[in-house]
Amino acid sequence: MRLLINGEPHQIQNASTLQQLLETLGYEPKSIAVAIDGCFVPRHQYGTFELSDQQALDVVAPMQGG
Amino acid sequence: MWHIGGETLQSRLLVGTALYPSPEVMLKALQVSGTQVVTVSLRRQAPGARGGEQFWGMLRSLNVHLLPNTAGCRSVKEAVTTAHMARELFDTCWIKLEVIGDDLTLQPDPFALVETAKILIQDGFEVFPYTTEDFIVAQRLVEAGCSILMPWAAPIGTGKGLMNPYALKLLRSRFPQVQLIADAGIGLPSHAAQVMELGFDGVLLNSAIALADDPVTMAKAFALAVEAGACAYQAGPMPQRELAEPSTPVLGTPFWHQQPSQKQEVFS
User: Fold this and answer.
1) N or C terminus of chain A with fewer C-beta within 10 Å?
2) Global pTM?
3) Are A22 and A5 within 8 A, CB to CB?
4) Looking at the complex, does the CB of residue A5 fall below 8 Å from at least one CB of chain B?
């Protein structure tokens, strides 16, 4: 499955749900938030959210801001 | 003491967390400022990176309210999605809503701003909209359900101070029940004091402290200025006059109304 993660192309295997993907990539779910194709995905849906080929993920974390 | 977004605060100074020379200076400046609300943002996190967690840890140590922003958003959809991500990540319904319409001035897109504010208020957010000083836009935001308005003093990061004090004063007089916070363009403590003297409820700034030669001392200066301006508004400034008016009573002062002719009449 080809995914665009934070603007970078990735070839993903062995992950069909969002939770599996995040674990595979080493993300700590409580420290991030996720949008797929521009739409927010709540944390409680990670385990049931089925990924599809060519989706674009934004994985964000806290940062300094004004 | 004042109330905003369901919270009761002592400090009327809201401070950003960006652009400081180091995390240690940021922490010290925020502590010295006495702020109880700091703005934060979101950024893409690479797999395996831990930068966000470190910053999150620092924020927790401050024990302040977090006000996430939607910086960088240029459409309704981007801003709505970012707001939802921020709510989950920072565990707050407060959102500093920024929908930028122009890259050079970072001027808010008022049409997208109002539309986004409506959506987010329906979704249960407490919206802090970053807007211009335009009265009609402010009116639309209030009609959309905003109880807080954050008009700019000047474009973000310019430090120019109040470009249109007339319009800011008008907002205060026309929206007495709305919490008004000047956001962006403040460069000096005197600018912050001026905003508060107009009757604003608070001041939000970042660059003016973070980019000072000594951010910690500047944070103290802003804390004092905001408090001074708020006290001045509460005290009720004297009315301005077009002509001079002596402050020392003239009646009985030496030589008062004494003309040479009077002296001649007395002794003649």
Assistant:
1) N
2) 0.93
3) no
4) yes
